[in-house]
Specification:
Length: 253
């Protein structure tokens, strides 16, 4: 990677109705009052985002996927933070693929990848459990929200499961829209299980094979014919279909 300083963070929230409050509360407690934030949403969320995020602090634009690349309607800012919000229902594997291309092309540096968990959905809906599990696989930070919709033991058991699996990401509890540690939202230290955004010299793996507990990633070949490992959530079979299928969230904004 070069010295490109266009930092891009990502928030996987799905159509969680509290995502705008979460962002406002976190920004107000973690960033200086004079510091703004560039926020990019899907075109279908643009009106809602602009109504929820005050223009004096937030510049709201859109992102789209075009031929496998992330396209922003406004350039990323070198002076302020940039946050891409994924507030739609399909599992974001296509977005992660596109972000990898942009990262490898040095279009931006990946900052924090955050999953915003709606506890009530995750507790009662099977699709939501798998959706959040997949997002957490790529995340540095997991924010557990809507805890009033579940019993106390649910949160404890949820955290214990990932502790036993030795996930390196931070887990934080959200109360009334505010994470307990709002500064973690803008930290740039990688803490994710997936290695897809690690440069080869930092991961120490390069083209070598690696395994995630319980998964056997598919192999592919790079331009030099060397075998490389693919992330279990991104690998495809001979028909071009995802090997690990994750169903969409059954919710709407």
């Amino acid at each position: 990677m070069s010295e490109n300083q266009l930092w891009l963070s990502v928030l996987f929230s799905g159509p969680n109705p509290t995502r705008w409050k979460l962002l406002q509360e976190t920004v107000s407690h973690a960033l200086p009052k004079e510091e703004g934030l560039f926020v990019y949403v899907t075109p279908g969320e643009l009106k809602e985002a602009r109504e929820a995020l005050p223009a004096e602090r937030y510049t709201v634009g859109t992102w789209t996927l075009v031929e496998g690349r992330v396209v922003f309607d406004q350039p990323l800012s070198a002076e302020m933070g940039n946050l891409l919000i994924y507030g739609v229902t399909p599992f974001p594997a296509d977005l992660v693929d596109a972000l990898i291309l942009g990262y490898r092309a040095d279009d931006y540096v990946i900052g924090r990848i955050i999953t915003h968990v709606h506890s009530g959905w995750c507790d009662t809906v099977e699709e939501a459990k798998g959706w959040y599990e997949g997002c957490i696989h790529f995340s540095d930070l997991v924010l557990i929200d809507s805890r009033d919709e579940v019993v106390d033991n649910w949160v404890r058991d949820f955290l214990e499961r990932y502790r036993k699996l030795h996930y390196p990401c931070h887990f934080d509890l959200v109360r009334r829209g505010l994470p307990k540690h709002p500064q973690w939202f803008f930290d740039s230290q990688p803490r994710r299980l997936s290695l897809v955004f690690d440069p080869d010299d930092l991961s120490g793996l390069g083209g070598m094979d690696y395994e995630i507990e319980g998964d056997e990633p598919e192999e592919d070949e790079d331009e030099d014919g060397e075998k490389i490992s693919l992330d279990p959530y991104l690998s495809r079979n001979a028909a071009g279909e995802r090997e690990k299928k994750v169903r969409s969230l059954p919710f709407e904004s």
